[in-house]
Design a protein that fits this description.
5-stranded mixed sheet, alpha/beta, 13 strands, globular
């Protein structure tokens, strides 16, 4: 069994061949994210037709709401052209292969449930740090999608103190990893505001102005995790997205969580502390989870 898994992100498209034991058998070159539906279909066609091994299916990970029963994408996050696209029906008719599509945050959670740090966990969650804050929730050992396939869309969390709804102040937006890297690079006067390696070089060096921004980011993320913990009582939260490969992120989020957890005494005594770890699959979680979802049928 070899599944072609494709992850459409806000800035790039990742793809890989996923083997029957749900590991990345072969990573394929990344591409810039398409700007139109026709460009997205061209990306898929290029991948399918250029692969020389027999495929057993195509698995798609995308931002936005995905009706997994009908195989329809809605909204699509930054990729709004996907709205209303009947991905399963369209691709199955063209390639005569089984096709499944899943929201990227939910895909990350499934990957960790299958072969990662949520394996054997009854209740847990994956938080994906990207252009927004995606999420996937595992309850009683199964992916929880919600009544409208929108469970875990943490990008749309609103701050508590808000007289008028301002989209730029939405909590999920303030937890954008892309936004964090951009802010750090602005302080560094970097010519490339999206240079994550440069940003984390400065963060790891703990340059004062830069690290304050990073601490605030991690504190906001820790508060979000604590709020989710009061609702779901999770065993484990796994953090995904490209920046999850940075050990300092996991260290600082845990430090901030412990600080917040004990700032109000009775919260620390009553609310049990979950484990907070990096995704085992890091940036490949969406690909593996989408393939796992296809295999589940």
């Amino acid at each position: 069994m070899t599944i072609l898994a494709i992850d459409f992100g806000g800035t790039q498209v990742k793809s890989a061949l996923v083997s029957e034991d749900f590991v990345l058998a072969k990573s394929l070159p990344t591409q810039s994210s398409p700007q139109t539906l026709d460009q997205a279909l061209d990306v898929i066609d290029h991948l399918v037709t250029s692969i020389e091994v027999a495929l057993s299916g195509i698995a798609i990970s995308v931002p936005g709401t995905v009706d997994t029963e009908e195989g329809v994408i809605y909204y699509g996050g930054l990729l709004r052209f996907f709205h209303g696209f009947r991905v399963k029906e369209t691709l199955q008719a063209k390639y005569h292969l089984p096709v499944a599509a899943l929201n990227d945050g939910k895909a990350a959670a499934l990957a960790e449930l299958a072969t990662g740090h949520l394996q054997g966990v009854t209740n847990g969650a994956a938080l994906v740090l990207g252009s927004g804050l995606g999420g996937g929730i595992i309850i009683n050992g199964r992916l929880f999608q919600g009544s409208h396939f929108q469970a875990g869309e943490l990008t749309f969390l609103l701050p508590l103190q808000m007289e008028k709804i301002d989209p730029s102040l939405m909590r999920g937006t303030t937890l954008s990893a892309v936004g964090l890297i951009t802010k750090v690079n602005e302080i560094l006067a970097s010519p490339d505001l999206k240079d994550g390696l440069l940003a984390f070089k400065a963060i790891n060096a703990k340059k004062e102005a830069v690290y304050q921004i990073f601490e605030t980011y991690c504190r906001n993320l820790a508060i979000t995790i604590l709020n989710l913990q009061t609702i779901f009582d999770m065993e484990t939260f796994v953090l995904g997205g490209g920046i999850s490969a940075q050990p300092i992120l996991i260290e600082e989020v845990n430090r901030q969580f412990d600080t917040v957890h004990h700032e109000i005494d009775f919260i620390g005594k009553i609310i049990k502390r979950p484990k907070i770890v990096a995704c085992y699959h890091h940036n490949g979680a969406n690909l593996i989870g989408a393939a796992y979802f296809l295999k589940q049928g």
